[in-house]
Amino acid sequence: MKTFDELYAELAERARSRPEGSGTVAALDAGVHAQGKKVLEEAGEVWIAAEHESDERLAEEVSQLLYRVQVLLLGRGVPLEDVYRYL
Ligand SMILES: N=c1c2ncn([C@@H]3O[C@H](COP(=O)(O)OP(=O)(O)OP(=O)(O)O)[C@@H](O)[C@H]3O)c2ncn1[C@@H]1O[C@H](COP(=O)(O)O)[C@@H](O)[C@H]1O
């Protein structure tokens, strides 16, 4: 189990150390266009899960959306603090 902030710190460390086999490193290298498409794809899956699937599936899809949003932010170099200013 990890929090949103802990995941971001973990992904930032992946971006820094670039370990072999990291999906995050591959997603960052794919660029902002691919990252944005993943955000949209996962948002659609969240919508479908909310309308038609179980609470567990919804939670899983939301976790994937949050991950994809974090990859997008990391790719742009935007820290979570910049997002939190608007919450
Ligand atoms: N939370 C996540 C996470 N959520 C989603 N995903 C990725 O998103 C995929 C699921 O999304 P899709 O529905 O698009 O599935 P898919 O089409 O089969 O996946 P792709 O072939 O498109 O990658 C998963 O298979 C993962 O590749 C994640 N990948 C990594 N994390 C966490 O990020 C951290 C770093 O991971 P690595 O960079 O892989 O070491 C670890 O703590 C991981 O648990």
UniProtKB/TrEMBL annotation:
Designated name of the protein: Phosphoribosyl-ATP pyrophosphatase
Family: Belongs to the PRA-PH family.
Tagged with keyword Hydrolase: yes
One Pfam family of this chain: PRA-PH
Pathway the protein takes part in: Amino-acid biosynthesis; L-histidine biosynthesis; L-histidine from 5-phospho-alpha-D-ribose 1-diphosphate: step 2/9
InterPro entries, per the entry: HisE, PRib-ATP_PPHydrolase-like
GO BP annotations listed: L-histidine biosynthetic process
EC number(s) recorded for this UniProt protein: 3.6.1.31
